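Hi, here's the filled form for the chain we discussed.

Project: internal
Contact: R.S.
Residues: 331
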Amino acid sequence: MTPMNDKPETTAENNKARLLEGFDLLFNQRDFEAAKQYWSPNYIQHSAHIPSGREGLFDLVKGLPPEMSYENGLIIAEGNYVIAHGRYTRPDGPNWIVVDVMRMKDGIFEEHWDVIQDEVAREQSKSGLPMFGSSFGKPDRATAPATTASPLTVEQARAIVAPLYDALNQPATKDVSALLAKAANPDYKSFHTNEEWLSREQLADVFKMIGSAVPDLRWTIMDIQTLGDQIIVRGEATGTPTSELFGVKPTGKSFNTVAIDIFRVKDGKLASAYHVENWMTAIEQITTRTRAENRGKLPNELMVEYYAQRAGAGLIITEGTRQRAIRTIRL
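And the returned structure, exactly as it came back:
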């Protein structure tokens, strides 16, 4: 083992040895005191999946299942940088295949970046080759594809949709594209009518757009049900816009509205979704009047323009007209 009380020379071989030793202490042995001698107190973290700083990383590892472990497959170094290709074996989900990039100084880990992918089994590999080493990883038990003999459980459903809803909570602070890639298949379709849909990449742009207007956006799963290979989620969206949202300028007021998502699952990931969000109620809550509350209750030019804007963004909007005592209006 490289001595930890002496500063090792900053050479490629020493840096590679230090990284492997530090990762083994932290991820495999869970020896946090010893691992502290490898990570700088001012550790800079760029990963979208790990809290900032050394303590953020250590706290995350403390909450991981004890069966989770790290295995290195390839490591290269140049100057103060080390790149490691490894497998994080997980007992409660798909293994992670990760490229860790570490900047080091005097053998101490100063700054970190990563690229993470879920490991797939042989039957899911289009190339027919493993993602790590010469062997395929285990099938994903937590998000195993549903079959007619084994329908999705609520627990499996929650695990599958979790990254998507994580991306909807303060999207401006998240790697939205990476989270959607974790939740959904590459050919995922998000339908806003029965025929029209957005791709996974287009949906990421919509999430980012809403997140930039509503920095504190929160999307909470209120109820989740399964039916065969389908997942039905009733959600609650809350937040306070700080910039223009759907053509409406911020007023300092917050909204609280409902959303319904119906997902279909294929190969353990989301294949498609049909969704409805009641954004008109949200707009009403942050303004003094709804756009439908014009004289005579008939659509005006502003309202027509509003719906055109929403349709262009791939969003379904519902609006209810307030009921009066003298009559009931059904939409």
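Let me know if anything looks off before we file it.
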